[in-house]
From TrEMBL:
Family of the protein in this entry: Belongs to the cytochrome P450 family.
Keyword Iron listed: yes
Names of the cofactor(s): heme
Protein name as annotated: Cytochrome P450
Record keywords: Heme, Iron, Metal-binding, Monooxygenase, Oxidoreductase
Amino acid sequence: MSKYALEAVGFVGLGARLGTLSEDLTEDHPARRLQTSVKDIFDLAIRIEARPKFMKHLPTAPYRKILAACDTQWEISSMYIEQARNTIKNRGHEIPEEDKSIIEKLLAIDEKVAVMMANEMLLAGIDTVSFVTVGFLYHLATNPQAQDRVREEVRSTGTSRRYLKACLKESLRIWPVIPANLRRTTREHVVGGYLLPKGVEVIAPNEFLSKQEKYYPRPLEFIPERWLADKSDPLYYGNAHPMVTLPFGFGVCSCIGRRIAELEIEILTSAIVDNFVVSWHGPPIKVKTTIMNLFQKPYNFKFESVK
Ligand code: HEM
């Protein structure tokens, strides 16, 4: 799944195929090294963040490893960005605006921003998409009626994908990849009678809040219909406070890849459900929460061709 996510973000962001989906991807292939370095960065970040910060004076093994992973991620993403830049420069003719990659559009505005954005996309757009896609497929596999309804929708001649989108929203409510949103206050605030001074770190535990009965009835159940119900229905999602469920964050720091991610996941899931009946054979999947959520393997999916 993370190979698909990397290939897709490379194509949309840089306008290039990275070759991640190739069957004989070796460990030293740049795409593979990029994928591993991103995984290491996220795995190690919590160990670095959650422990006393004396690493600068006494560099521990995880600290050295995360620095090496950041260097590899920067080196390989810079190489891909350079390749994309050369392709654009050597093309020698204009192409329609809608066919341009994100980096091509950004390079025309600001070179520094273009490079930073492309680099961040190749960091933030891999494990996030793969986690959410696995979670979404799991929910469809364990809720066959919802899966049948999605199949009916993707096979219909209509263009609406309302039910598919509602299923994705519901899956993100239950398993957002980032369990909590973090901010540092830039001024004093009073929230619920508590004074938050300037310059402190604040954690909004959105996953925890999204699983509270007072915001969502039957909060642990996968009920996509709550995103489609009208206001008179007790399930109506709008009864929850709008800041409770924020799987892509909020405000100026919110996820820049939201639309790309949603499209990637909707396209892949539609194709899978159109061709296969997906089921789950094994104990419930387990989530490990660190700086982001991760599923514990094995993945007990079964894919059978749709008759
Ligand atoms: C379903 C998949 C994804 C989820 C759930 C997700 C979620 C998030 C969240 C919660 C944040 C922090 C927002 C905040 O603090 O308010 C974030 C930031 C970010 N995301 Fe995503 N993301 C996903 C996919 C992607 C993809 C595909 C890309 C790139 C194409 C991307 C690029 C970024 C970047 C660059 C940031 C940092 C923004 C900043 O700090 O200004 N994300 N994402």
